[in-house]
Amino acid sequence: MTIAEDLENQDRKLCWIYGKQSREFFPEKPWADVEVILQIGWERIRRDSKIDWTKASPHVKAAWEG
Predict the structure, then answer these.
(1) What is the chain's alpha carbon radius of gyration, rounded to the nearest angstrom?
(2) What is the pLDDT of residues 1-31, one digit of tens each?
(3) From residue 7, how far is each of 27, 46, 56, 58 by CA, in Å?
(4) How many CB atoms lie within 10 A of CB 41?
(5) CB 15 within 8 A of CB 60
(6) pTM, to two decimals
(7) Where in the chain are the domains?
(8) pLDDT over threshold 60, residue 36
């Protein structure tokens, strides 16, 4: 199973969008420097998503890096 296969489609899209937009907002910062900030943001924007940061972070990071 790949990283993306263990999430529902809507959750996967939300992680992808959040990761990409966060990278644009913090273009010069490494992941380690912004992960805590992104975790706080995730708790605010996840809306109806059932996944917490522990499950979302690898997906957000993949979008951030990719």
Answers:
(1) 11
(2) 455 555 678 888 999 999 999 999 999 999 9
(3) 26, 13, 9, 11
(4) 17
(5) yes
(6) 0.84
(7) 7-65
(8) yes
- Cα end-to-end distance, the chain, whole Å: 19
CB 60 within 8 A of CB 23: no
Closest Cα to residue 23, out of 44, 37, 2, 43?
A: 37
User: Other C-beta atoms within 10 Å of 62: how many?
Assistant: 15
- In sequence order, which residues have a C-beta less than 8 Å from that of residue 54 and are 6 or more positions away? none
Rounded-to-integer distance, Cα 8 and Cα 45, Å: 17
Is 26 within 8 Å of 41 (Cβ atoms)?
no
